[in-house]
Amino acid sequence: MGNNLKTTVMKTLVLKFGGASVATPEHFARVAEIIMSRRSAYPSLVVVVSAMGDATNQLEELARRVNPNPPRREYDMLVSVGERVSISLLAMALACYGCEAISFTGSQSGIITCCSHSNAAIVNVKPWRLHDGLAAGKVVIVAGFQGVSTEGEITTLGRGGSDTTAVALGVALDAEHVEFYKDVAGICEHDPKLHSGVQALPQLNYSQALDIVERTGQVLHPRCLRLAEANGMPLVVKGFVNDQLPGTRIEGDPRGVPTTRHYEKEELRC
Ligand code: ASP
Ligand code: MG
């Protein structure tokens, strides 16, 4: 009755780099190194990046100097540019190492949102172009924080939204887990930027993690934790300076993993 050898299907890994890890042009080489070292274990890699440093703040400020109350559609057209700068630079940095990569905006990646500009919910993901890029052996790089509405307009997800992009892609691509690279070594009971000597917690379930990030405002956007919990998607939070440390793993009971994908609820005002 068949053979006993199990074939291991290599799953996709989603990596997410926040604005602090791409703060300057020099940072991109470090991010490229981490990507290449993860690639030896996971040939199928999708990388989500935020805008460089405080680029999104600067774009918001630019908008306000032209119009203190910018039309929300045009706000999205402007601030979504920050992530587009990062994805193209990261693909260029990888090319320096001979690593083939291709960058996509949220809309090219098939991230479908509701039409609530500047605060859109991800209602579906159609990642066809990402599958094509992976099948061609490339590292696929996706702009966080943005998508395309069901009406075909560019939308953004709200500040800090790139974490949610990463989890939504993990769900859509049936990733093994989503790995977040941050400027701290993981999630701690108390904010390590305010308390010295606190250690990253090795393991949390979703509600423990949600409790800590809501109480302390640490590293992960609560919304991405809710999306991960709804889909049983495991998350790992680690530091980009010392990526050899295990960081914090967040997951639920594997028996609770749903068989269908759940994205976000459409905003009522759409
Ligand atoms: N760049 C956007 C922001 O600063 C999205 C993100 O970083 O997650 O809010
Ligand atoms: Mg940012």
Explain this structure:
The chain is of the alpha/beta class. The protein has a single domain, classed as 3-Layer(aba) Sandwich (Carbamate kinase). It is about 35% helix and about 20% strand. It is built from eight helices and twelve strands. It has an eight-stranded mixed sheet, sandwiched between helices. A four-stranded mixed sheet has the order 5-4-7-8. Strand 7 and strand 8 (about 155) form a beta hairpin. Helix 1 (about 25-40) crosses helix 4 (about 80-95), helix 6 (about 160-170) runs parallel beside helix 8 and helix 7 (about 205-215) packs antiparallel against helix 8 (about 220-230). The longest helix is centred in the N-terminal third of the chain and has 16 residues, at about 80-95. The protein is globular, with a radius of gyration of 18 Å. The mean pLDDT is about 95. The site of aspartic acid (ASP) has 12 residues, from loops.
Short description:
The protein contains 8 helices and 12 strands. It has helices at 27-41, 55-66, 72-79, 81-96, 128-135, 162-172, 206-216, 222-231, and strands spanning 13-17, 45-49, 101-104, 111-113, 122-125, 139-143, 146-149, 154-156, 178-182, 203-204, 235-239, 248-250. The strands form 2 sheets. It has an 8-stranded mixed beta sheet with strand order 3-6-2-1-9-11-12-10, sandwiched between helices. It has a 4-stranded mixed beta sheet with strand order 5-4-7-8.
